[in-house]
Design a protein that fits this description.
Layout lengths: L12 H8 L2 E5 L8 E2 L5 E2 L1 H14 L5 E5 L5 H6 L5 E3 L6 H7 L1 E3 L4 E3 L1 E6 L13 E6 L3 H12 L4 E6 L2 H9 L5 E5 H9 L7 E3 L7 E3 L2 E3 L3 H20 L6 H4 L5 H7 L15 H9 L2 H8 L29
Parallel strand pairs: 1-4, 1-5, 9-10, 9-11
Antiparallel strand pairs: 2-3, 6-14, 7-13, 8-11, 8-12
Helix pairs in contact: 2-8, 2-11
Length: about 325
């Protein structure tokens, strides 16, 4: 990666990360599809790949990403305390989190909604049949607030069982301590995989909330916010332009203006963020475009097999939409 002039890099998170020689991301642990570490300590998942994409943009090297597992009820404090540079802990973008925590969401990398997981043997057709249920939920999440709203709005009785981690809530559900498990639908797909007999459990069709999930940064560094935000946009633009991990080499020789801007052959857009001209190329080479990352971790090529739905590009019926690089 070409060296940047001192004027291109302002003091802040970018400088801290570069001086350290590594990007530190806070992630959930034990959540298949988003962030999970294997027995060797190797991390994988959608959020993990996004962290690596940011590292690729900053360093030209995705291996300079480091991961710290954070609990849901501690994740924002960890970011505020500067123990991590970027939070990717399946966090829902809400007004109160930005207004009261001095944090800011850098976009929506995954559009989700909350649902319910229940034993198939109960033959439930709707969440409206959950009256009197004991509900397992992870503490420190919007999931508890949402399901309480839903039950109260529909005059349903309930009992809440709160747990600190995903693993604890899944274990309690499987042990029969509660009748139903609630969380974001993507997380329910992941949690179902952790059960001894995943096929014996069903995710109900009801979606009871909007859950825009995305990366979180501190509000005191606009440059870092812009970098994280544009990494997401770069991944979306790459998919829209047909630039993938297998075709990025061909893109370097393209004569199309939009592709030339993406690969850094035209314009000086990256340096305005303190990045090298090949930042987009480094992202796609390292982790792929948005569709590749989604399919590999959550979609058709993953164990979860979640339909892409709202997370399709805007041009094919979804709502993932990136501003142009120009």
């Amino acid at each position: 990666m070409a060296a940047l002039p001192a004027s291109a890099v302002s003091a802040g998170t970018l400088k801290t990360v570069r001086d350290r020689g590594a990007l530190i991301c806070g992630v959930s642990n034990g959540l298949p599809g988003f962030s999970v570490a294997d027995d060797r300590g190797e991390w994988s998942g959608f959020d993990v790949d996004f962290c690596r994409a940011v590292a690729a943009a900053v360093f030209g090297d995705s291996t300079k990403a480091r991961f710290i597992p954070v609990l849901a009820n501690e994740r924002f404090d960890v970011l505020k305390a500067r123990k991590v540079d970027l939070l990717l802990g399946n966090s829902t973008w809400t007004m109160s989190r930005e207004a009261t925590l001095n944090l800011i969401f850098a976009g929506t990398t995954y559009y989700d909604g909350q649902g319910f997981l229940a034993p198939k043997r109960r033959n439930l057709l709707s969440a409206l049949e959950l009256d009197g249920s004991k509900v397992c939920v992870e503490a420190g999440t919007t999931s508890e607030l949402n399901f309480v709203d839903y039950f109260q709005s529909n005059n349903l009785k309930y009992e809440t069982l709160r747990f600190k981690t995903v693993g604890e809530s899944v274990a309690a559900y499987e042990a029969g301590q509660c009748d139903v498990l609630t969380s974001d639908v993507s997380e329910l797909y992941a949690q179902r995989l952790l059960l001894a007999k995943p096929g014996d459990h069903v995710i109900l069709a009801d979606i009871i909330s909007k859950e825009p999930l995305g990366p979180v940064v501190r509000q005191d560094d606009v440059q870092w916010l812009n970098i994280v935000k544009w990494v997401h946009f770069a991944m979306l633009n790459a998919e829209e332009l047909g630039i993938s991990s297998t075709t990025v080499g061909e893109a370097l020789n393209s004569s199309k203006p939009a592709i030339k801007r993406f690969v850094g052959a035209e314009g000086d857009f990256a340096r305005q963020l303190g990045l090298s001209p090949d930042w987009g190329v480094n992202i796609v080479r390292s982790v792929g475009n948005y569709g590749e990352v989604l399919d590999r971790n959550l979609g058709a090529k993953s164990l979860l097999g979640i339909e892409r739905g709202l997370n399709q590009l805007w041009s094919v019926g979804g709502i993932q939409y990136a501003p142009p690089i120009r």
